[in-house]
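Hi F.,

I've been meaning to write this up properly since the lab meeting, where we talked about keeping a consistent format for the predictions we share between groups. The idea is simple: the sequence comes first, exactly as it goes in, then the structure tokens exactly as they come out, then a line or two of notes. No screenshots and no reformatting. I'm using this chain as the first example so we have something concrete to point to.
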Amino acid sequence: MFKKPSFKFHPRTLVSTLLALIVMAFGSTANAQNNEATQVEVPSEIVDVDISPNTTSSMNSTPNEGTTGLCERPEQWLYAKTYEESDMASHGGKVWKAVKQTNGDMPGKNTPPFWERVEGHCSESTY
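Output, unedited:
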């Protein structure tokens, strides 16, 4: 009924295939090596920086930048949180400061406003 498949072993074919694979592998690694030297840029000046917490930054500071010179992003605005006057929150990629006590009032949405935008805050998104 069914013919039994017959596979014949051809050692020459196997050996030539393996040899071709080895030649291709060594040939590709030889081509991958480049004789050109890699150029590495070295900084022209090395500056020592003191990062102790008691030093003040001499850099141009922006609003809400601490004495460490790091930008401190206010917490994300939360609907259920009560904010007191001058509390800060981030919302929509911007930083906002409460003008008066507020609870559930989204920054930038109410009239009269409960929030004012802090222009130029160091953590503001630029999109």
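Notes:
Residues 55-61 have pLDDT under 50 and may be disordered.
The longest helix spans residues 11-32.

If this format works for you, I'll send the rest the same way.

G.
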